[in-house]
Amino acid sequence: MKKIIASMVLFIAVMAQTVYVGNPVRIAGSGTNLLAVQDGGIMSIDYVHNQIHAGVTYRVCRPFIALANNANAVMAIGSSNRFNHFIASISTSGAMWVTLYEVDWTNWHSAFGTNREPVNMQRALPTNLFKSSSIVREYPTVTNWGTMLCTSLITGTTGNNSVGSDVRLDTEWVLNTNKFYIIAVSNVAGSGKDVSINMQWYEKTFAEH
């Protein structure tokens, strides 16, 4: 029965992928190994992890040192032709509000803010051939903050041994094209605190999406 199930899985995968015969037998998509059969066993890699191997997963990690009380650390990301499958994590050394906004393309001023080049997480590929299609800006100028999608509070602590905390924006968000998505981290700790914003995403066309 195990051999029958393994054969069915292998057949289904072969229908849409390229098979490399050998030991192990490898089934590949987008130039990377998705599934391998060796010594009667199936070895697989989850889809999100595979996007790193495929060279289409990117990160931007930014520190904001001693962010003033009542000030905001702001990052924005957008693409005109790719759907970004996006997650973000924010760490702080004090109490902060973290808010995600969706902004119309027409309300975005790409000439403002500091450009931050996305880093490809697949470092074994020629990164000049696998560049991100997304625009990432630090402290962009926005005429309209658009729609608030979610907001979370990072709680602070008090005392000599106080520590910060972090928050992750739920699970993966699929970002639309011709929109910009803004992460705003607002310091409400009462004094200057450190912040880090880590953004990670993989990119898909409409057909792939």
Write structural notes for this entry.
This protein has 209 residues and is mainly beta. The chain folds into two domains: 2-45, no CATH class; 58-204, Jelly Rolls. It is built from two helices and 18 strands. The protein has helices spanning 2-16, 47-53, and strands at residues 18-20, 25-29, 32-38, 41-44, 57-67, 72-79, 83-92, 96-104, 108-109, 114-115, 119-120, 135-138, 141-142, 147-154, 165-168, 173-175, 179-187, 193-204. A hairpin with a 4-residue loop joins strand 1 and strand 2 (25-29). The protein starts with a helix and ends in a 5-residue tail after the last strand.
Give a nutshell description of this structure.
The chain has 209 residues and is mainly β.
User: Helices and strands: which structural class?
Assistant: mainly beta
Q: In the CATH hierarchy, what is the class of the largest domain?
A: Mainly Beta
Average pLDDT confidence is: 80
User: What string, H for helix and E for strand, traces the elements in order?
Assistant: HEEEEHEEEEEEEEEEEEEE
What's the story with the biggest beta sheet?
6 strands, antiparallel
Spans of 5+ residues with little confidence (pLDDT < 50)? 1-17
Cα(first) to Cα(last) distance is: 34 Å
